TrEMBL record:
GO terms for biological process: rRNA processing. The gene is ybeY. Zn(2+) binds at H108, H112, D118. It is found in: Cytoplasm. Its main location: cytoplasm. This is Endoribonuclease YbeY. It comes from Chitinophaga ginsengisegetis.
Length: 144
């Protein structure tokens, strides 16, 4: 099982990568999802917009795009692209620390790969609840 973090032409805001890799592995286990490989790519709005257009035919900015690359639905082989520009803007907009917003999006992508959806109000509420749960587990009560 390999988890990688790459920054593509953006500042690296991620701290304690070893701790986060272990936590993500535990998140997948807790959700009953196997994990073979996971690659997070932190990038700019412009870079993620091109991915969104090319692969999803969406001409909109977004904070995250998640791809399941494997063939076995029980074992994740995923790629997650995160716009650092969106994370910074949303942290300011929602008046939360950048680290909190960054980890919320990181966990959001992992939860998508575990099968959680967010298109309906009910699904979005469950996704938000799971994000909060994992933020508290990761940070304790320091941030949330």
């Amino acid at each position: 099982m390999a988890i990688q973090f790459t920054s593509h032409e953006v500042k690296d805001y991620l701290k304690e990568k070893r701790k986060l890799k272990s936590f993500l592995s535990d998140l997948f286990s807790a959700e009953g999802q196997g994990l073979r490989s996971l690659h997070y790519v932190f990038c700019s709005d412009a870079y993620l917009l091109e991915i969104n257009k090319q692969f999803l035919q969406h001409d909109t900015y977004t904070d995250i795009v998640t791809f399941e690359m494997g063939e076995d639905p029980a074992i994740t082989e995923g790629e997650i692209y995160i716009s650092v520009d969106r994370v910074l803007e949303n942290a300011d907009k929602f008046e939360v620390p950048v680290a909190q917003e960054l980890h919320r999006v990181i966990f959001h992508g992992a939860l998508h790969l575990c099968g959680f959806k967010d298109k309906s109000k009910k699904d979005a509420a469950l996704m938000r609840s799971k994000e909060d749960e994992y933020l508290v587990k990761y940070f304790g009560n320091k941030i949330v």
